[in-house]
């Protein structure tokens, strides 16, 4: 079995659980936050720095790597692990979502998606078979079925047709997948319609994947609606298989996602906001570029022990960011990733000690949005 999940501790009052994810590139504790490395790099971080902060699984993108440098070249370099010198876990998204969020002139059909590259405008096509072939060449430990992320909002009938096509595509991916050392996860769709979510779970679970992602969320819907979909959908998934909530990574959504029983999270948020000088702290966001921090010689976050917070002040980091010095975004990224990885560790500890509800309450008492 390429990837297996061990349920270690189930919270007695909520859906939260602590587990272990076994992959060919190591064993990782869940709940887990997976830094995004779209173009085979977690922006501004070296693999050693990622290891030092405890990153276990990083994410990359079929869409980007298929267009540049091409999956054949990455395969020649020994797959993504060899190419980027990363010997822990890798998960790749299947490309459908990125086609719709980055590509242009898209045309979707039963066969797949025709689009123009955002890099050079060239005509491209991705099908379930092609996306699976690319991911086999990239060699990630966990690969995703080729899906359509139902847009928000979407008419019931569109959501139904799209979700049923995603199920047919998932079956085609399963048939095309021929690497025993890789796990192919199914992606649950259904828009914001509970009965379509149930149908998507039923159909994909009957295809028996080693893990399931919840797609079609974190696409601009109000957070209460996302939580409502999670509350409805997550408990219907097999308890002994990992659950991955795609595109979710702000602390408030992580706490709620863990509460509903999600094991795996990704988000571009911590690395993306770092690049415009925003640090994540326990009480919310700190825009260190703001003038108010010009003479503030304290660390970004008083109770953080990361390399950045142990050695540099807000004033210095603000200076670097204002001067567009590369070190500025590196130091902010180091802090944000460390903060989120440590935050997941604290949640796991709370679950192991059966005090997750108290942890969640403390979090919400302190948190003022982002
Ligand atoms: N395949 C797929 N991806 C999604 C992503 C990208 C996650 C991702 C994976 C790997 C790298 C970057 C991003 C979503 N991000 C926010 N909401 C999302 C929904 C979906 C979805 O429904 N399907
Ligand atoms: Zn820090």
Automatic annotation (TrEMBL):
Coiled coil: none annotated. Its EC number is 2.4.2.29. SUPFAM superfamilies: tRNA-guanine transglycosylase. One of its GO terms (molecular function) is metal ion binding. Pathway: tRNA modification; tRNA-queuosine biosynthesis. It comes from the Bacteria. Substrate binds at residues 93-97, 147, 189, 216. Residues 14-368 form the tRNA-guanine(15) transglycosylase-like domain. The keyword GTP-binding does not apply. The keyword Ribosomal protein does not apply. Homodimer. Within each dimer, one monomer is responsible for RNA recognition and catalysis, while the other monomer binds to the replacement base PreQ1. Belongs to the queuine tRNA-ribosyltransferase family. This is Queuine tRNA-ribosyltransferase. It comes from Lucifera butyrica. The gene is tgt.
């Amino acid at each position: 079995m390429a990837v297996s999940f061990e349920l270690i501790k189930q919270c007695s009052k909520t859906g939260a659980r602590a587990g272990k994810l076994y992959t060919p590139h190591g064993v990782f504790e869940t709940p887990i936050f997976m830094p995004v490395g779209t173009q085979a790099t977690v922006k501004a971080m070296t693999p050693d720095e990622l290891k030092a902060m405890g990153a276990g699984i990083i994410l990359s993108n079929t869409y980007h790597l298929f267009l540049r440098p091409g999956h054949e070249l990455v395969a020649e370099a020994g797959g993504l692990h060899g190419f980027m010198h990363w010997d822990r876990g890798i998960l790749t998204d299947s490309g459908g979502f990125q086609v719709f969020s980055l590509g242009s002139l898209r045309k979707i059909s039963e066969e797949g998606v025709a689009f123009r590259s955002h890099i050079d405008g060239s005509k491209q096509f991705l099908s379930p078979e092609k996306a699976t072939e690319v991911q086999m060449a990239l060699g990630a430990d966990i690969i995703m079925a080729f899906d359509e992320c139902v847009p928000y909002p979407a008419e019931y009938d569109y959501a139904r047709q799209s979700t049923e096509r995603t199920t047919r595509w998932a079956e085609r991916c399963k048939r095309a997948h021929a690497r025993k050392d890789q796990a192919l996860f199914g992606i649950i769709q259904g828009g914001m319609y509970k009965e379509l979510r149930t149908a998507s779970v039923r159909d994909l679970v009957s295809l028996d994947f080693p893990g399931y992602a919840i797609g079609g969320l974190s696409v601009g819907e109000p957070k209460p609606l996302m939580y409502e979909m999670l509350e409805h959908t997550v408990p219907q998934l097999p308890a002994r298989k990992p659950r991955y909530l795609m595109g979710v990574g702000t602390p408030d959504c992580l706490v709620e996602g863990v509460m509903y029983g999600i094991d795996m999270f990704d988000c571009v948020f911590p690395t993306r906001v770092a690049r415009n000088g925003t640090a994540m702290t326990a009480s919310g966001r700190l825009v260190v570029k703001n003038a108010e921090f010009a003479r503030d010689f304290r660390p970004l976050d008083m109770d953080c022990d990361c390399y950045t917070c142990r050695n540099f002040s807000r004033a210095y980091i603000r200076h670097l960011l204002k001067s567009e010095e590369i070190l500025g975004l590196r130091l902010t990224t180091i802090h944000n990733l460390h903060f989120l990885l440590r935050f997941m560790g604290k949640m796991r500890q709370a679950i192991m000690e059966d005090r997750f509800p108290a942890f969640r309450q403390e979090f919400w008492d302190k948190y003022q949005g982002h």
